[in-house]
Amino acid sequence: EDGIRDSSTSRGLGDVYKRQDGFIIHRANLLGINGILQLFNWASDGDISVVDLKDILSEDEILSEIVTRLNQFIIEDMGGEILQLSETRLLILPPSCKGMKGLEDEAFLN
Predict the structure, then answer these.
(1) CA 80 to CA 30: how far, in whole Å?
(2) What is the CA radius of gyration of the chain?
(3) What span, in angstroms and rounded, lies between the C-alpha atoms of 109 and 99?
(4) How does pLDDT run across 8-18, given as a tens digit for each residue?
(5) 45 phi and psi angles, rounded to 5 deg
(6) Nearest alpha-carbon partner for 74 in 96, 38, 44
(7) Are 8 and 27 in contact (CB under 8 A)?
(8) Residue 49 in contact with residue 60, Cβ under 8 Å?
(9) CA–CA separation, 17 and 49 (whole Å)
(10) Which of 11, 15, 33, 54 could be 6's S-S partner, Cβ–Cβ 3.0 to 4.6 Å?
């Protein structure tokens, strides 16, 4: 399969999470180059994506092409952001949502 797979189905959580402020957060496993079209659609809709790349990390040429195309569309064309969450996961943010550096120093009160 050369696309995208919803990673939350196996846990029974559904494929999206919606917050009160209107952001939709998608969780997905990228299986190949064709899956980036869905990531582009979600970002164009103003949605956030958490993308696991573990299934394609060993395919250097495909991974390089995916990173190039994501950077061009998400960052250069749309003005969004791509943040690395871990060795295998990326966070794709639309232009309406900005990542902040240094949250580990913030105090969160209930």
Answers:
(1) 19
(2) 14
(3) 20
(4) 443 333 355 55
(5) -80, -5
(6) 44
(7) yes
(8) no
(9) 10
(10) 15
- The amino acid present at 58, given as its one-letter code, is S
Closest among 91, 107, 87, 88 to 99, alpha carbons compared: 91
User: Which residues neighbour 94 within 8 Å (Cβ) at sequence distance 6 or greater?
Assistant: 43, 44, 45, 46, 47, 48, 78, 80
pLDDT tens-place string over residues 66-85: 999 999 999 999 999 999 99
Coil/strand/helix, residue 66: helix
Nearest CA to 73 out of 50, 95, 96, 97 is that of: 95
Residue 88 dihedral angles phi and psi, to the nearest 5°: -120, -10
d(CA 45, CA 29): 19
